Amino acid sequence: MNAVVLAGRNDRKLPVMAALHERGFHVLADKPWVVSADAHRAVRQVTGGGALAMDIMTARHDPYARLRRRLVRTPALFGEFRGGDGPAIDFRSLHHLVKKVNGEWLVRPAWYYDVGAQGDGVVDLHSHLVDQAEWLLEADDLEGGPEYDLDRDVEGIESTRWPTPVPQALFTRSTGEREFPAALASDVRHGVLALRCNGQIRYRLRGVAVRQRAEWRDVEPEGGGDSHHAIIRGTGCDVVTATGPETGFRPRLWVRPQAPRPARRALDELVEAQQAELPGLFVCESTSDAGQFELVIPEALRVPHEAQFARVMDEFLDRLEQPEDNERLRARVRLRYLLLTEAKRRCEDIPPPPED
Q1: Helix, strand, coil content of the chain in percent (nearest 5)
Q2: Cβ neighbours, 10 Å, residue 21
Q3: pLDDT per residue over 56-112, tens digit each?
Q4: Contact 266, 74 (CB under 8 A)
Q5: What is the edge-to-edge ordering of all strands in the sheet holding 26-29?
Q6: Which residue, of 71, 106, 164, 289, has the greatest Cβ tally within 10 A?
């Protein structure tokens, strides 16, 4: 069994993966796989039959994301995805160019600030967000539904992107480089780089309206980190997850039901059924919002982001040993990057919106 793990410059990733695929190498590659609008053919090649190509989607191993999915897939509680003009699946994430990882300030390579190498605001972080939307809508079992297909399952793609200003001093602090490289000259004005790293994509996936927004700011706040917010809107309840300043940068999950009393009974049943996977999980009524419930996962069961990479590696190796579900994985990955390629092709540049 020959397998390769790829990370690094994203503009080189697909050509390398295509060459490895032709030679029969299985590949586990960091996101994003696409940085341009002409990646359709290469995406289809590496997600075709033969050797497996899989991306590193850590969020599927986060216990709060797994619990959110279980709630959404409980019809007695969630009902169906809500229709109408607004998004039924609504993701937003906020990240920082200067941040700490495992207690140390992250040093980024200079090419990270080149959207032609790293990927811009509609292809980078959005790979994770598309994956989360797919995960909410895909079947659990092998006979549970057809594989994903872009032409059949996706419609109405709209995308926008806008820049974050990066002064020379911030670039130097992040990379250790004293000057912007020549490759960035066209985006530098008066010593400030306009980094097109923010983006929003709207689309319908299997008829469900999705909105996903990813943004970058300068320096991580003291004691803080990345922020993640999601609202999944159902006819029976909304499922809300948040990690940010308002939660002390710790993940939290709430259920906002249309009818609190029957919802509480359904929640109690779900919590009992989840004890084998999440021992100690409990539900409590919100003290700040009557009729809203919070589900709390014990601290010992929470999985730090860095630890999720090891779980992705284990999943990859398991799939090489037992490939029964790999065709559906290929279809899911193929749809994800074809969708992002289309979002890149249709992208509209807009001025930076005011900060919240």
Answers
A1: 35, 30, 35
A2: 22
A3: 999 898 999 999 999 999 999 999 999 988 999 999 999 999 998 888 899 999 999
A4: yes
A5: 3-6, 26-29, 53-55
A6: 71
